[in-house]
Design brief:
Strand order of the largest sheet: 1-2-4-3-5-6-7-8
Helix content: 25-40%
Low-confidence stretches: none
Distance between the termini: 28 Å
Order of helices and strands: EEEHEHEHEHHHHEHEH
Radius of gyration: 18 Å
Structural class: alpha/beta
Mean pLDDT: 94
Number of strands: 8
Largest sheet: 8 strands, mixed
Shape: globular
Number of helices: 9
């Protein structure tokens, strides 16, 4: 078993800072060098995430000799807000996030030893895959954990749901929240943890960080976020788009995901030229890297084997 890790403090040696996008937007980042770097890992979190949630995973890769970096997406975590209120997550277009990632990537690569790996969770996985398809980033290998390639599987086609989101943006402020968060603004509903992980202590870590650093708190996405999500996901699903991704790709996903579409993930895996799909069942929920140890450690082992091969 791994040594105990304090998930509620910034590790010694990890450096928090800010990166400025081209338009001056401050993007919060964290960098943590390995003792004898074997390469570099850039980790990209999901919607409403902040890098504190993934300190344990970052520590795992740093402990294996990787330089690790993560940042909070524009408009969430410690990188400000763009929505209707202090809690709603909004973006004008996913292209804005892709542009931020591309600019950050170019600067980061100047000091990041090869091989360079990108690991993305949920929305971060979506944006990493889109950036690779657009040629904005060129990692040696790409790891996607429960990537947001479709929203929760249901009975309505994406085209119809996208039309509804467009209509909602036309009849009101696109920055307004698209779903109810809680009776208490900024407080997550009690059922939220059941969607993310079987590990109540790791879920409690997120709540602890939200209390310790209130600027990290985020609730629902905006109607603009929903509409732009469908637009971006549907673009990735177009014929030939994923064929542009030449890097080896590892996808970890669970059939029981209640937030993103497992069916869409399977379709994407079939279209990628060099992709390995690791399927989980009822033992895993959406946040595979924050799951109970049997699932989490198995996932890390699969990722380690995959990214270690980048240096061969």
């Amino acid at each position: 078993m791994p040594a105990p890790f304090d998930r509620r403090s910034i590790p010694e040696g990890a450096v928090e800072g800010l990166w400025k996008a081209a338009d001056g937007q401050a993007i919060r980042r964290i960098d943590w060098a390995g003792s004898a770097p074997r390469g570099s890992v850039l980790f990209l979190g999901g919607r409403a995430d902040f890098y504190e949630k993934y300190l344990e995973a970052l520590a795992h890769w740093q402990g294996r000799g990787w330089n690790v970096t993560s940042f909070d997406w524009r408009g969430q975590g410690g990188s400000g807000r763009l929505g209707f209120d202090p809690y709603t997550g909004h973006i004008d277009d996913y292209a804005t996030w892709v542009a931020d990632l591309g600019a950050f990537w170019r600067e980061w690569c100047a000091g990041a030893p090869r091989p360079r790996i990108v690991i993305g969770h949920s929305m971060g996985g979506h944006l990493a895959l889109r950036a690779a398809a657009e040629g904005v980033i060129d990692p040696a290998r790409l790891v996607l954990c429960a990537p947001m390639l479709g929203l929760r599987d249901g009975n309505m086609p994406d085209g119809l749901l996208h039309w509804v989101a467009k209509a909602m943006c036309r009849i009101g402020d696109p920055r307004r929240p698209a779903w109810k968060w809680s009776e208490k603004p900024g407080q997550p509903p009690e059922s939220r943890g059941d969607l993310l992980t079987h590990d109540p202590e790791r879920y409690a870590d997120e709540l602890w960080w939200r209390a310790a650093r209130p600027e990290l708190v985020m609730g629902p996405g905006s109607w603009g976020w929903v509409e732009r999500a469908y637009a971006s996901m549907r673009w990735l699903a177009h014929a030939g788009v994923l064929a542009r991704v030449r890097q080896p790709v590892l996808i970890l996903a669970t059939e029981r995901d209640q937030l993103v579409s497992f069916k869409a993930i399977v379709r994407a895996a079939q279209r990628l030229p060099a992709c390995e799909l690791v399927r989980h069942g009822e033992e895993a929920r959406h946040e595979i890297l924050r799951e109970a140890d049997p699932v989490r450690l198995a996932a890390l082992a699969r990722i380690d084997a995959f990214i270690d091969g980048a240096g061969v």
